[in-house]
Structure formats: C-alpha cells, structure tokens
Amino acid sequence: MLTLADLGVLREVSEVDGKVVVSITPTYTGCPAMDTMRDDLVHALHRAGYPEVEVRTVLRPGWSSDWITEEGRRKLAEAGIAPPGPAPRRTTGPVPLTLGPPARRVACPHCGSADTEGVSEFGATACKALRRCRACAEPFEHVKEI
C-alpha cells in the first residue's frame, strides 16, 4: 500500500558500474521490518535486471515522521491508519523525558472525529500506537510523531 519512498525510508539510489546501491533508514532502532525491506529491494532490483545490489542502512540523520510524503499520508488514512502530525522539534542537547503518555489529538481515519482515545502506546509495531474512536467506536492505529 505504501512505497519506501512514501514512507520516507528510501534515502538514496545510485548505480555504479552496474551495481545498484540503495540507502534506507529505519523508522525506529531495531525496526523488525528492515530485513523485509532489504530483501524486497534486492529481489525487486534483481527482477528488474540488476544482478548486483547493495542495500545500506543509514542511521544519521535519524528518520522523522515528517519524511512521510503527502501521498504516503493519504494512503495511510485510506488504509485506516491515522498518519502522524508534525514531529516534535528539538534543539540540540538531551531529549526531554516525560513519564506520562504524550497528549495527542488524532482524528479517526474512519469517520474523521477528533474524539479519540489512546488504548496502547504500541500497536502492531513500535512506530504505531493503538487508538479508538469514541464517535464510531472503531479501533485504529496511528503512526507516532518522531
């Protein structure tokens, strides 16, 4: 439903002497989807006729949910997943630690209501939270802002 470019994970693609080099960035450290993304890229490029493929993991700068394209946000919402709002802005220095869950206003991707509540800070993956709409009672996942 979403391409790696839509998700903002695809950083760079280059070809040098017939070898394709692809750079990707995980949404979270230890993202379990990285191996699948890497394998899918290698297989797709082999099918496209590129026998030599290298996939590099780039960690700096760290991925931001702001890198998700508008098309990607639209596709998430159409699939019933609430796209992230703007990522928090940090200045240099330590990341502030809060002990409570972040206060979020997330619209329901099913009915559009802003009357939603958090169920769990972690959904099927660490980059998503589980929420429920109070208006239509539908559960949904929300891609967290980072």
Layout of helices and strands, plus pairs?
Blueprint: H1 4-7, E1 10-16, E2 19-24, H2 34-47, E3 52-57, H3 70-78, E4 81-82, E5 116-120, E6 128-133, E7 139-143
Parallel strand pairs: 2-3, 4-7
Antiparallel strand pairs: 1-2, 5-6, 6-7
**Quick one: CATH class of the largest domain?**
Alpha Beta
CATH architecture of the largest domain: 2-Layer Sandwich
Oligomer: single chain
Task: Determine the number of helices (DSSP H or I, runs of at least 4 residues).
Answer: 3
Give the N-to-C terminal Cα separation. Answer: 21 Å
Over the alpha carbons, how many angstroms does the gyration radius reach?
A: 17 Å
Strand fraction? 25-35%
What is the residue-mean pLDDT, rounded to a whole number?
91
Number of domains: 2
CATH fold call of the largest domain:
GMP Synthetase, Chain A, domain 3
Helix/strand-derived class? alpha/beta
Low-confidence stretches: none
What proportion of the residues is helical, as a percent range?
Answer: 10-25%
Protein name: Phenylacetate-CoA oxygenase subunit PaaJ
Domain MIP18 family-like: 3-55
Domain PaaD zinc beta ribbon: 98-144
Organism: Amycolatopsis cynarae
